[in-house]
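Example (one chain per record):
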Amino acid sequence: MQTSETLAIANPFALMLNPAEVFQAIERSDRLERLQRRVCRPLDKPLIAHVPADFSDYDHAIDAEPETDE
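Predicted structure:
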């Protein structure tokens, strides 16, 4: 004969309806307690381009170019 707890564990949708029971089952689980725990961090860091703050040389070069109407 199946108990209501066995039926709830067999049906994942029933587990979503009672999260407190899920957390209690997790705390009582011997299999989860034996798992090795480790923290994984991503190896890739986002690359942020370093742009020089002084654009005055660029501005002067653009201003020095002759204007054309093409």
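Caption: The chain has five helices and no strands.
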